[in-house]
Amino acid sequence: MPRRGLWLWPLGACCLVTQVLAEDLLGADSLDLLAEEPLTLAAPAEAHEAHWSDGLKLTFEQSQGQNQDATYLKRSRLRLEYEQGWGDGWFVRLDGRYTHYWADDLQATLRGEAYDHSEVQELWAQYSAGACAYKVGKQRLVWGVVDGTFVVDVITPLDYTEPLLTDYANLRLGQEMLLADCFAGAWQGQLFYLPEARLDRVSHSGYGLPLDTGAEYGARLKVSDSLGELSLYAAHLYANTPTPVTTAPGLAVAEYDLLGLSTTLVHESLIGQIDLALKPDQWYPLSNQRRDRLDVAIGLEYVTASNHNLNAGVMWNQWDNPPPSSDDSSPLYTLGWRQSYLHDTLAMSLLAYRADQPRFWAVNLLADYQWDDHWSVAGALGVADFATGVTTPFGTNERSVSVTVTATY
User: Fold this and answer.
1) What is residue 325's predicted lDDT score, i.e. its pLDDT?
2) Rounded-to-5 percentages of helix, strand, coil across the chain
């Protein structure tokens, strides 16, 4: 796409956002609650006998992404989802995907040709009995409360072959896992075990190096009340992201025992958040040394009854006795926003990051419109600026403006 045509996308996106925000400001949430619509009594619906195929969903998705230089995203995907309750206490879920990466797609460019990739992201069964639920199969597990900082949210690895628009849920990789949750009043206990940990995915060809992992297991204890919640974590883990080191083979995966804490404090529509984790025996980047590290994240979230969400966070880490020649990492700042419009048919969201050492910042704005019961269209505008050589979930280009469009049926 010529550069001149590309810049028409930001102009159109800005017009749409301006119209939607003006509509939001002119109709405040508190005023909308006072306007009651006339009550209409619907005729009783006919009883529907449950069938095993009721939870089956088949979708086709076409995605196209363009920046000022070239096409970086061009893929077609067929997705099969199934979820259904079976009998007393049983529930199953399947999420399978078959994707064709066209020759213009970045992943195909790296491989040198177009290719196909199929994968089952989720395939699990859950059994609930009394106050406990037991889940087995390929699944995801999310820990922590400060979105996008990954202080204690380190169980599920990420798939960086997928575009990060505004939601990390689209990047999470499923793993074979046993999971148990039990509840007693305000308390929740959780145990997990997975036989072999997966690493973050940067390509479908892997890292090209022998990077071994093993079993992971851990526990979470959570207590909640009207003022907030407190969670304590303990786990034996492998780092999701290999660290570049000065010894062969050049990358290393840390095996460590995590101790962590998360807490939230609720005051009306505001939620204060803290994640904290002690991670011993981490590989220090570009060295042959291992050091203990403390990761901390603090966040603030604003939530309304009309699905309006605004969140911000800051994350930093502190190394124990880092090498003398090392550079201190600066804090990482995050900002997120979500709001629904037009009777929940239009969902707007934003995700932004900034750090100074190494330097990078990125902003993504997404509009997702549900056209009817079958069609949905999403468009994203991204702006990013990275220091040379910095790799982030948003990409590796030094400067870029990108447009991504996805149609789903």
Assistant:
1) 64
2) 10, 55, 35
3-class secondary structure, 107: helix
- Closest C-alpha to 29, from 272, 369, 340, 348: 340
Can you give the C-alpha Rg of the chain in angstroms?
Answer: 23
Its sign, for the CA torsion 61, 66, 71, 72, is: negative
Question: Domain residue spans in the chain?
Answer: 134-275
Q: Answer yes or no: are the C-beta atoms of 265 and 179 closer than 8 Å.
A: no
Which pLDDT belongs to residue 307?
77
Phi first, then psi: give them for residue 231, nearest 5 degrees: -125, 140
- Tell me the C-alpha distance between 231 and 142, whole Å: 13
9 confidence band (pLDDT: 50, 70, 90) = very low
Beta-bridged to residue 90, according to DSSP, are 86, 127
Helix (H) or strand (E) holding 17: helix 8-26
List pLDDT tens digits, range 334-363.
Answer: 999 999 999 889 999 999 999 887 788 999
Q: What is the pLDDT of residue 230?
A: 98
Q: How far is CA 364 from CA 24, 200, 367, 409, in A?
A: 20, 22, 10, 24
CA distance 219 to 181: 10
pLDDT bucket at 46, cuts 50 / 70 / 90: low
Beta bridge partners of 193: 178, 217
β-pairing, 216-225 vs 270-283, is: unpaired
Distance CA 133, CA 129 (A): 6
DSSP label of 395:
B
CA-based nearest residue to 199, from 243, 241, 170: 241
pLDDT digits (tens, 9 = 90+) for 377-401: 999 999 988 765 555 554 555 678 8
